[in-house]
């Protein structure tokens, strides 16, 4: 038995989705409107197809109006921009998500910047990035993976993270940077580590909260973890698993789970930790976007 509490992301995500389902039903009752999510997939990337299918299924399960647009890999940039423009102006759509990566001939940032910030449920538009960085989280749409990681932290440690040392390993725009902004707003003392950080093990050892978003299998070792720390492992890495059969693979995080679980106070598993929270937070963002666009007050 590992010493650490295992943070059950699957169960927490399920409770968030249940709450959103109830709130969407109430919205329908009071306003006759359903939150509307449009997911755009360009091309046939198998992983993206799975993500898009899961997002569409989750939205339907929450009682949302859900639309999936699947475009061929050779669709022109202009055609993708025209679709985003159409969705921007569709009153039944409150959230637009363009699945990344886009094929190479399409300028990703041009597409993402065209999405109305109020409908940008991925939280990648510079307006939302700016609002989050400026500490105006309540007017922003926050990227789903860091938002979900924060929910896991609060369900584990309670609502007050103030004064805790947090180390975020990774500085990507979709995970590391927004995660650091969120933790800073919670009054943590935040360090962002990356590939040029010196003495990374020592930096991680100073953390009460470690968020690993590196994309390197089991890079963070057990002896890097301060005893009792809370570890959120965002990484999803597929590694060969010959023990499961020829050509088989298994998913592991960026943290060596077996080692870290002997030292940490609490830790997320991979799979079953942060992963399920990402889709749950997409549902939260879509409902939030719908209420704002419909000019309904935020709920208690
Ligand atoms: P990126 O590749 O965009 O960023 C990785 C970051 O890790 C970079 O900032 C990089 O530093 C840093 N890094 C790389 N190597 C090292 C090293 N040896 N030491 C310290 N830092 C290092 O990845 P993402 O942020 O997009 O994703 C990170 C992980 O999270 C991936 O495994 C991804 O699959 C997973 N993920 C999971 C999601 C979920 O739903 N659970 C959602 C999104 C991502 P530098 O900037 O210096 O290059």
Could you walk me through the main structural features you see in this protein, from its secondary elements to its overall organization?
This is Bifunctional protein FolD. Keywords: Amino-acid biosynthesis, Histidine biosynthesis, Hydrolase, Methionine biosynthesis, Multifunctional enzyme, NADP, One-carbon metabolism, Oxidoreductase, Purine biosynthesis. It contains ten helices and eleven strands. α1 runs parallel beside α10, α2 (46-61) packs across α10 (274-293) and α6 (144-157) crosses α7 (176-185). The protein starts with a strand and ends in a 7-residue tail after the last helix. The strands form three sheets. It has a six-stranded parallel sheet. Strands 3-2-4 form a three-stranded parallel sheet, with helices on both faces. It has a two-stranded antiparallel ribbon with strand order 9-10. It is an alpha/beta fold. It folds into two domains: 31-118, Leucine Dehydrogenase, chain A, domain 1 (Rossmann fold); 144-276, NAD(P)-binding Rossmann-like Domain (Rossmann fold), CATH 3.40.50.720. The radius of gyration is 19 Å and the shape is globular. The model has no long low-confidence stretch (mean pLDDT 97). The longest helix has 23 residues, at 9-31. α2 (46-61) links the parallel β2 (36-42) and β3 (65-71). NADPH dihydro-nicotinamide-adenine-dinucleotide phosphate binds next to α10.
């Amino acid at each position: 038995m590992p010493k650490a509490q295992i943070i059950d992301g699957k169960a927490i995500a399920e409770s968030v989705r249940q709450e959103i389902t109830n709130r969407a039903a109430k919205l329908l009752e009071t306003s006759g409107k359903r939150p509307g999510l449009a997911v755009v997939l360009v091309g046939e990337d198998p992983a993206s197809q799975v993500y898009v299918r899961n997002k569409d299924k989750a939205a339907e399960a929450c009682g949302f109006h859900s639309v999936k647009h699947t475009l061929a890999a050779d669709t022109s940039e202009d055609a993708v921009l025209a679709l985003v423009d159409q969705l921007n102006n569709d009153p039944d759509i409150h959230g637009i998500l363009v699945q990344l990566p886009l094929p190479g001939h399409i300028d990703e940032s041009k597409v993402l910047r065209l999405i109305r910030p109020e409908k940008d449920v991925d939280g990648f538009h510079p307006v939302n990035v700016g609002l989050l960085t400026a500490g105006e989280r309540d007017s922003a749409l926050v990227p789903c993976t860091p938002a979900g990681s924060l929910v896991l932290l609060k369900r584990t440690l309670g609502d007050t993270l103030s004064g805790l040392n947090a180390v975020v390993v990774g500085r990507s725009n979709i995970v590391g940077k927004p995660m650091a902004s969120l933790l800073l707003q919670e009054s943590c003392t935040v360090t962002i580590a990356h590939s040029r950080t010196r003495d990374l093990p020592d930096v991680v050892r100073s953390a009460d909260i470690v968020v690993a978003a590196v994309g390197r299998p089991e890079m963070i070792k057990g002896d890097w973890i301060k005893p009792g720390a809370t570890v959120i492992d965002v990484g999803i890495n597929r590694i060969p698993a010959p023990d499961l059969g020829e050509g088989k693979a298994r998913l592991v995080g960026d943290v060596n789970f077996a080692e870290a679980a002997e030292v940490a106070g609490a830790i997320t598993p991979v799979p079953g930790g942060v992963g399920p929270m990402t889709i749950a937070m997409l549902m939260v963002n879509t409902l939030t976007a719908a209420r704002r666009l419909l000019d309904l007050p935020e709920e208690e």
